[in-house]
Amino acid sequence: MLGSLALASPWMLAALALLPAIWLLLRLVPPRPQRVDFPPLRLLYGLLPRGRVAARSPWWLTALRLILAALVIAMLAVPTLRPFNQSGATRVTPLLFLVDNGWGSAATWTKRRDVIQAALAAAEQDRRPVALAALAEPLTDLSLSPAASLGPRLAALAPQPWQANRGAYAPAIASFLRAAPEAEIVWFSDGLAGDGDNGFLSALSEAGKQGRVTVYRDDARSSLALAGAANAPSGISVRVLRMGKLDRALSGTVRAVDLKNLPVGQADFSFPAGAGETTAQLDLPVDIRNDVARLEIVGDASAGAVQLLDRTWRRRTVGIVSGQDKDVSQPLLSANYYLTRALEPYADVRTAEGTSPAEAIGRFLDDKLPVLMLADVGNLGDAEVKLSTWIENGGVLVRFAGSRLAAAENTLLPVKLRQGGRTLGGTLSWEKPQKLGSFDANGPFAGLALPDDVSVKRQLLAEPDIDLPGRTWAALADGTPLVTAEKRGNGVIVLFHVTADTTWSNLVLSGSFVEMLRKVVGLAKSAPVTGAVAAQAGAAAPVYAAPSRTLDGLGAFQVPPATAQPVRADQPGIGRPDHPPGFYGPPDGLVAVNALPANAVLKPLDYTAVNASLADYTVAKPIALGPALLLVALALLLADALIVFFMAGGWTRLARPGVGSAALVVLALSLSLLAPPNAQAQNRPFDAALKTRLAYIVTGDKETDDTSLAGLKGLTAYIAERTALEPGPPDGIDPAKDELAFYPLIYWPIVPGKEPPPPAVMARIDAFMKSGGTIIFDTRDALQQDAGGAATPAGETLKRLLSGLDIPELEQIPAKHVLTKTFYLLDKFVGRYDNGETWVQATAPTSEDSDKPVLGGDGVSPLIITSNDLAAAWAVDAQMNPLFPVSTGLERQRELAYRAGVNMVMYALTGNYKADQVHVQDLLERLGR
């Protein structure tokens, strides 16, 4: 290492000591021919003696040749110029890496991790000790260790589905800086402001004043998130947020999926310039809306870009039956009006007009409504038996007091009413109206703010008994119940001890009335099929729901981690380490926990308090100086040849007739050899037909195409070194223009969101596969896949692509598939990642007693599907150094990835001949005859 300059073979510089000897040799030049005029005898006059045939070169020509020799020596040392952000420091000081690995970093995690790995590699080269802190994970001890030892930990580091808790690390950082005051801090930030940032920034401020803090941030892309989904009468609406108020417009798509991960609708959204929030509106029928379990931003893989919807969110249909006489003159003061206005924001309301309460109740029950509200309905008649059965099956009945209910006698009440305690002016009358006193801490109203403007002038009193306190959800200031409830079977009966209008109280005018009804309606399902949740909601003790499926940092479902704890069903809260975002509870009563609250706002983080040096998330690749030195050396060599040519009288020779024309022809041929590769592109199919070549599909995405080319170059070199096959250089092909039949194996990386080729091109691809060709489809998304099988953006793109092909039945590679033993014996096909599965055409056993599956004849599976990012594991630079790290950080994984590539190439070239080993015994017996 010489600062930013790295030498792969520094010992070659010892050849510079030979420059004096080279100088002695380079001083000589051929003598210049003499020009002698006619007559012929004059040619013999003045000639030099025969022994003097050399002359000394000018000093400048000798210097040119010495420079040429030095360039050749330097080129043999393989010099490489490291970029600035990888160059080592002049002093060996400790480093503290602070990594924001919350959901805000998930969308660009691959790029961020590459930057962190590059910084860690630079620290390893400079032998600097490093301490690493992942700010979204539980607090750990900040201790220095060799940079090389942090490789496996960094490879296992992944974004978490909650926001980084920087404040928790502030004391540990302060202690670390006291122990190592000269340490430098590198903060890989996600740019999102959060709680506790003030203490964190204060801990870094002192080091920032000394210029020892560097902050990586990505201003080119803002984090996107979803929050505050609402099931309005017009459709589903959800808030789409982005970090800060950027000056550029931004658009995207929100997709709605059900519990089976099937898409049921989508809507576009757009941010005007300068806006930090917009709304996506999905217009769907109510029945379809109630099936939606997940909203997600297409192409944005993070837990913040996912909004989970549980049973409490679903828009239920509520039937309202009023026992009051129809007041034509004052329709805006009726109970139906107040209930309808309170329920409309989150439920579909149906009222009964022109019919008796019993008939209306029977009609609503026939329609399987989950919630019924009876406003001052006393005598239920024949509907009481049917209504009781409906409650037992999970229905929610809400009753409101009134003169008719006070005078009636029925059993569908949560408490026994006290006679004589319902009229004002009696022995139990109040001198002044009573205010709302309290909500039961274990009831559904727990957590609601107590309004101070609600007053009750009249109520129905409950008969005191031992069970009354456990059935009271809301009470007045004097302790008398305002709302009581009782669990009946799988359903709930709720009684408001006041009317649903303003005659007895002003409760219906309060915003708390809307929230109370919302909580009550949330106890019901979209239809009263089962009642586990309703039964739980009616219990006195709080109900907790165990984790069922949780989200990872990329927004994909996974098996709940061991640290996940149950959440309170009525107060799930937002995601945190012990309650990660996801679904909790049984399948028929899921409770959703999201990464962001409904009123969330994404604020950009202000770094000015730290006085840090800012850097972007970019990794500049090392620059190989060898090719440039070679070009300079060739140019000097050509200049030396021309100088010697003209010093030896070459210009006079060119002046002879015919010699100049021949020189021009030679010059034209030389220039043709230096033509750029695309000038000879028309010969590529011819070259591919003469020599075996691997190929990749050009996707149009530069980063993906460069990785594919570098990967196939690395695999080609590995094949040439380890096998008898010597493939030619790989080709990038366009299936719409290039002939596919010349290539036995084609690598096709999937770019998320890219549309499939036109049908005519798909027909060519299908013909190639049916003619014996094999295509490797690589979604490169193994880290984004979850145990629940939810499709990733790349998986959705592959699904659309394969829908245009005649694809056979697929299966995961069996343990004894021919592909596992074509060249190397393998049990798994890994790439840059090792957790993805590999799929091939489904096979059949060779015989009833054989477990070695093969295809008939010499058939080869026309496609191989993987998600392990094979090309990134194979990719090498010009010096054959790996370009990308593997997930485990162990080179053994890269070696296995190369072996998997060799097996795939041999499989495509040789077929399933090795499966014939099962018939060896029969063949030997036949030969013996």
TrEMBL record:
Residue stretches making up the Aerotolerance regulator N-terminal domain: 6-79
Keywords from the UniProt entry: Membrane, Transmembrane, Transmembrane helix
Ranges that cross the membrane: 59-81, 628-648, 654-675
Source species, domain of life: Bacteria
UniProt domain DUF4159: residue ranges: 693-909
UniProt cross-references to PANTHER family, sorted A to Z: BLL2463 PROTEIN
Protein name: LytTR family transcriptional regulator
